[in-house]
Structure formats: structure tokens, C-alpha cells
């Protein structure tokens, strides 16, 4: 092994290809969904305890901008995570593994994520 290889420690100079960005974003949205699940399960628990709990949670989601922003973020993450998951499943079956087709699949995935996030935003607000 060559120990005299140049080492680039400046991460701002590394240019990642679009499929790598799409894959990293898929992992980030998965972590975000896992963390957001805690809040959604709490809201679900409160809403099931009583009718007053349900009315409280629905009033918060209806009136609070911050609650709507969190709900929109979780839906946007869910939609992108699903689109990227489908892309990864297709790649597992041998499709879009080359550089050009992988880049196109990443563009389609990112585009679908943006469109679905906009639709979720319109639906929530």
C-alpha cells in the first residue's frame, strides 16, 4: 500500500456526483423520519387518549405555523425517502447502474421529491 498518497482533508473542495448526493439525502431523510417518528407517535398517543386530546392536537396542527412546518418537513422527507427507495430497489435489480443512467435516475428522484414536497406543502397549508 502506498503511504505517500495525497490526502485531501478539505471537505469543501470535494465535488460529489449527483447519485452520491441523492444516496446521502436518502440516508439523511431516513434518520429525520426516525427522529420525527417520536413526535408523531406522541401526538398520536395524545389524540387517542380522549376526545379533548384529539381536539388539542388537531387545533395545534391547524393553527400553529411551527407544527405545520414540522408536518410538512416530515411529509417531504417521507416522499423523498420513498422515491429514493424505489430508485435504490431498481438499482438492486440492475437498472440505472451506469454513470449516465444513474445520474438521470438521481435527477428524476430529486425532481420527484421536490414536486411531492410542493404538493405536501399545498395540502398542509
TrEMBL record:
It is found in: Membrane. The keyword Cell membrane does not apply. Pfam families: Sdh_cyt. SUPFAM superfamilies: Fumarate reductase respiratory complex transmembrane subunits (SSF81343). The chain crosses the membrane at residues 24-44, 64-83, 104-124. It is a multi-pass membrane protein. Keywords: Heme, Iron, Membrane, Metal-binding, Transmembrane, Transmembrane helix. Its main location: membrane. Its cofactor is heme. Belongs to the cytochrome b560 family. Part of an enzyme complex containing four subunits: a flavoprotein, an iron-sulfur protein, plus two membrane-anchoring proteins, SdhC and SdhD. The complex can form homotrimers. Membrane-anchoring subunit of succinate dehydrogenase (SDH). This is Succinate dehydrogenase cytochrome b556 subunit. The gene is sdhC.
Amino acid at each position: 500500500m502506498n503511504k505517500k498518497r495525497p490526502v485531501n482533508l478539505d471537505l469543501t473542495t470535494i465535488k460529489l456526483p449527483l447519485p452520491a448526493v441523492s444516496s446521502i439525502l436518502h440516508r439523511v431523510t431516513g434518520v429525520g423520519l426516525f427522529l420525527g417518528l417520536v413526535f408523531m407517535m406522541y401526538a398520536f398517543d395524545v389524540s387517542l387518549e380522549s376526545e379533548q386530546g384529539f381536539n388539542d392536537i388537531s387545533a395545534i396542527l391547524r393553527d400553529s405555523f411551527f407544527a405545520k412546518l414540522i408536518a410538512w418537513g416530515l411529509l417531504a422527507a417521507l416522499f423523498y425517502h420513498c422515491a429514493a427507495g424505489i430508485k435504490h430497489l431498481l438499482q438492486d435489480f440492475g437498472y440505472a447502474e451506469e454513470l449516465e443512467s444513474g445520474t438521470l435516475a438521481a435527477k428524476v428522484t430529486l425532481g420527484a421529491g421536490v414536486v411531492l414536497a410542493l404538493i405536501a406543502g399545498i395540502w398542509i397549508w
